[in-house]
């Protein structure tokens, strides 16, 4: 399994991520959403280099040009709600992609930091033989990503899975390595942080991406 960590080299992703982490700028939801959106665009461009293409002749006003178009069917799948800005970033580049949405949330046990991940909703096209882009800004434990993936497998078996997150924890990277097919999975992350705290949030991380993008929930 290949892990592409954008923090291994200098890029705009690092600049966008720095602003998102900064507690002095996190109160600006527009900036936070826009930066997730822009990271999605950068990742979409890089992933586009890995797809298969086919030649196509394109008629111009002066002649015929030999160009290329995607040979792969692409499905962008997002875990609600925090994944929406990242999804939109991907969709602005893969504008003809099909789309899937999965609702996953943590259900905490009473008086405990332990939780189960529940899937309540899925809307997806057939993904059989297609390239699945599974996007969620925070890859904390990996459990939500795995359950979303298993839910999507009820719609077919993808040709390849690209997991894309703004920040992942090292435990989540290890979890994904163990629970996703190594030969057909690629992971793209803006940064890999070392650990999780007692509440299973990424440290140093940036907090709750959904709340920072859309406001706190009760």
Write a structural description.
With 218 residues, the protein is an alpha/beta fold. It is 30% helix and 34% strand. It contains six helices and twelve strands. The chain has helices at 12-21, 29-48, 84-93, 143-152, 170-179, 209-214, and strands at residues 2-5, 53-59, 64-70, 74-80, 98-108, 115-123, 131-135, 138-139, 160-169, 185-193, 195-196, 202-203. Strands 1, 4, 5, 6, 7, 8, 9 and 10 form an eight-stranded mixed β-sheet that branches. A two-stranded antiparallel sheet has the order 2-3. Strand 11 and strand 12 (202-203) form a beta hairpin. It is globular and about 70 Å long. The mean pLDDT is 92.
SSE blueprint:
Blueprint: E1 2-5, H1 12-21, H2 29-48, E2 53-59, E3 64-70, E4 74-80, H3 84-93, E5 98-108, E6 115-123, E7 131-135, E8 138-139, H4 143-152, E9 160-169, H5 170-179, E10 185-193, E11 195-196, E12 202-203, H6 209-214
Parallel strand pairs: 1-10, 4-5, 4-7, 7-9, 8-9, 9-10
Antiparallel strand pairs: 2-3, 5-6, 11-12
Helix pairs in contact: 1-2, 2-3
Helix content range: 25-40%
Strand content: 25-35%
Main beta sheet strand tally, sense and closure: 8 strands, mixed
Average pLDDT metric: 92
Low-confidence stretches: none
| Secondary-structure element pattern, one letter each | EHHEEEHEEEEHEHEEEH
The gross shape turns out to be globular
Relevant terms:
single chain, 218 residues, alpha/beta, two-stranded antiparallel ribbon
């Amino acid at each position: 399994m290949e892990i592409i960590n954008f923090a291994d080299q200098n890029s705009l992703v690092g600049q966008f991520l720095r602003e998102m982490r900064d507690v002095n700028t996190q109160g600006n939801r527009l900036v936070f959403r826009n930066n997730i959106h822009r990271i999605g665009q950068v990742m979409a461009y890089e992933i586009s280099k890995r797809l298969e293409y086919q030649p196509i002749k394109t008629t111009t006003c002066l002649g015929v040009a030999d160009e290329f178009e995607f040979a792969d069917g692409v499905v962008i799948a997002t875990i609600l709600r925090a994944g929406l800005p990242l999804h939109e970033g991907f969709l602005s580049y893969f504008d003809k992609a099909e789309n899937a949405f999965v609702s996953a949330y943590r259900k905490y046990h009473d008086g405990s930091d332990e939780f189960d991940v529940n899937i309540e909703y899925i809307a997806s096209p057939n993904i059989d033989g297609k390239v699945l882009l599974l996007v969620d800004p925070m890859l904390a434990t990996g459990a939500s990503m795995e359950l979303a993936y298993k839910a999507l497998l009820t719609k077919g078996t993808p040709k390849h899975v690209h997991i894309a997150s703004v920040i992942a924890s090292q435990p989540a990277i290890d979890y994904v390595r163990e629970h996703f097919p190594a030969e057909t999975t690629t992971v793209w992350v803006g940064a890999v942080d070392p650990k999780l705290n007692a509440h299973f949030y990424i440290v140093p991380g940036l907090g709750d991406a959904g709340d920072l993008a859309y406001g706190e929930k009760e």
